[in-house]
Design a protein that fits this description.
elongated; six-stranded antiparallel β-sheet; 17 helices; alpha+beta
Length: about 625
């Protein structure tokens, strides 16, 4: 039976305080990143504070589910990092409480946060997204003079299409202006060309003042003014400076946005319902397109009865009728037939291209709905996954505060962000399966969470810096320096006579080893990688030398201590083969590039061992007279 203990309350309290702080930090970072996408829609629009407050409120509600996992990751990492750094986690384990038992209150909290994340995505998020889209659309329509794009027609003004070749953002001037106005029927149209101009809002914000320089005005005359003539005349006006007032209410008015195709503005139930409708509609459209494609016909000019009779008499049996007919046409008719066929083929191609684009749009809409539906569950699940990454990592690294935890959290979130966005984009473009693209981030992070939880629960030193440093030193063959210092308290003096005798014996053994082994000779790769090659004599020399050095380390003579540090630390096996395991040596030798690296690494250790043995002889020759003085 689950009972709430003081430890659960203590850990939950530590986590809760950190979660509140980290959540607001993550929410602020996400909102600032999201804000840059819409900063152009906010600046210079004269929006009131209540409109801006609504904008940030809906934005915050939309981004809260994304802030939950990151806040859980960072707060859990800091929580257990603080417990480990202050040795509280050690005390908890010493009391017989496992790491999983210490985390059980936070596991329940993370599951509740996952449910809260899903609730926000399914209930609050769609409504917030709908209001945000309506608000954003209203903002874009408030001050059209700031929204006019370059190089395309802008239709945001009533009864007016405006084309601008270039804009100067510093002065607000427009260059290369073309205006198409139509306030009524065809007879009431006007085309205005100008070299430059400026569009401004009037003081009462009910009109737009369009000031034009160096242009021409082409306008049809109204049909009622000319008595309903069949041909409508027009007038042409050339001007150097002209002002036009356009009706436009630049006050802020909320616009009803049509978001029927926006999956983000729908709950899971609505998405499932719409997916069925979308699928049926796609099937019906595809069947209709297929039936129309079967009826495509390329028409040819109709032939007279006489021409048909002549063609039937002259037709070649081996050729199709169409080819026979075409072969007996004159050049002008052939040219007409070819132009007609090409025109019809181009029409068919254009029709198929349009239908293909429309079919891709429908399929993309269906995939978008599926991605949004799956994303509601994967984003909620990421709250639990991020907890099982953050809490074990905090227990392993034992570092609290905002230093190392922030760095690790950023790295983990970047990995999640890259896989999440790449997978969503690939699935949306129909390059990957939908379930794979949307779930790839979960597939990558879930094994990491299991691995870190297992290592932390078993007190593994997976992030022990000293262990990785020693491994790095061993791989590169870096030498460890001997560091012997005089002891302040000596229990027993060294046996100088026995140590001197042992050093002489070691020197003689080294001489015999040199006679039996030529360390400067390159050994056969077959012996290195595929045969056992432990050098027991070097290991014996190293063990005997270390015993003498350990005994002489108890001396009070600083000169002897200084000379002891000249003895090198011998590598006893690296000069014979790369690894102790026979199968690993064989595998290394088979993989040629890796085998070459380790072969030359082994040669380096052979040459170094040769120098080390010579150094031992020289150091022994220096230290023996000092020991003889101690014996006397």
């Amino acid at each position: 039976m689950f009972r709430i203990k003081k430890l659960d309350i203590f850990v939950a309290k530590q986590f809760g305080l950190l979660f509140v702080g980290t959540f607001f930090i993550c929410q602020f970072v996400l909102m600032m990143q999201f804000l840059w996408r819409y900063v152009d829609d906010l600046i210079g629009k004269g929006l009131t504070l209540d409109v801006l407050a609504q904008f940030f409120w809906y934005m915050g509600l939309m981004l809260m589910p994304q802030a939950f996992p990151l806040a859980i990751l960072l707060s859990s990492l800091i929580t257990f990092g603080n417990l480990g750094e202050s040795s509280e986690l050690t005390a908890i384990k010493a009391a017989g409480i496992s790491l999983m038992q210490a985390m059980r209150s936070l596991i329940i909290i993370s599951l509740l946060m996952a449910g809260l994340s899903y609730y926000f995505q399914d209930v609050i998020g769609p409504k917030a997204n709908l209001h945000f889209s309506e608000l954003l659309l209203s903002m874009k329509q408030k001050s059209p003079e700031l929204e006019i794009p370059e190089g395309i027609f802008y239709d945001g003004l009533p009864n007016t299409n405006l084309y601008v070749q270039r804009k100067n953002l510093d002065t607000g001037k427009l260059y290369g202006i073309m205006i198409y106005r139509q306030s009524g029927s065809y007879e009431d149209q006007a085309i205005i060309l100008a070299d430059s101009g400026m569009l401004q809002t009037t003081a009462e914000k009910k009109h737009l003042r369009l000031t034009l320089w160096s242009g021409e005005w082409f306008e049809n005359m109204r049909s009622q003014d000319i008595g309903g003539a069949a041909e409508v005349p027009y007038r042409r006006e050339t001007f150097g400076h002209k002002q036009i007032l356009l009706d436009f209410d630049s006050g802020f008015n909320m616009t009803d946005a049509d978001l029927s195709g926006n999956a983000k503005a729908k709950s899971a139930k609505q998405i499932v319902h719409d997916l069925d409708s979308i699928r049926q509609f796609i099937d019906s459209v595809g069947k209709n397109f297929y039936d129309e494609a079967k009826r495509y016909v390329l028409y040819t000019p109709q032939l007279t009865t006489t021409d048909s009779a002549k063609l039937q008499q002259a037709a070649v049996p081996d050729l199709p009728v169409i080819d026979s007919v075409y072969a007996h046409l004159d050049k002008e008719d052939k040219r007409s037939v070819m132009m007609t066929a090409a025109r019809e083929a181009q029409n068919v191609l254009n029709d198929l291209t349009m239908k293909s684009d429309y079919a891709n749009h429908l399929n993309r809409q269906e995939r978008t709905h599926w991605l949004e539906l799956i994303g509601k569950f994967t984003l909620a699940l990421s709250c639990v996954i991020f907890f099982f990454i953050g809490a074990p990592l905090g227990a392993i690294i034992r570092k609290g505060g905002l230093g190392v935890p922030v760095i690790i959290s950023v790295v983990v979130f970047i990995i999640y962000y890259i896989f999440e966005n790449s997978g969503t984009r690939m699935a949306r473009d129909d390059n990957w399966a939908i379930w794979f693209g949307k779930g790839i981030s979960t597939f990558v992070l879930a094994p990491m969470a299991v691995f870190f939880t297992y290592k932390a629960n078993n007190d593994s030193a997976v992030f022990n810096i000293d262990a990785y440093r020693l491994l790095f030193i061993r791989i590169l063959g870096l030498r460890q320096k001997r560091n012997i210092v005089g002891k302040e308290v000596i229990i027993s003096d060294p046996d100088y006579e026995a140590d001197a005798t042992e050093l002489l014996n070691i020197t003689q053994e080294i001489d015999r080893y040199h006679q039996a082994h030529n360390l400067l000779r390159w050994p056969s790769p077959v012996k290195v990688f595929f045969r056992p090659g432990d050098d027991q004599r070097i290991k014996d020399i190293s063990d005997r030398l270390e015993a003498v050095i350990d005994d002489l380390g108890n001396t009070t003579d600083r000169v002897v201590i200084h000379n002891l540090n000249h003895y090198p630390v011998l590598a006893t096996h690296a000069h014979t083969r790369p690894f102790r395991l026979r199968w690993l040596n064989a595998l290394t030798g088979i993989v040629l590039p890796v085998g070459i690296f380790f072969y030359f690494r082994m040669l380096r250790f052979r040459f170094r061992l040769y120098r080390d043995l010579k150094t031992i002889e020289r150091t022994t020759a220096t230290i023996l007279p000092l020991l003889q003085q101690k014996i006397k």
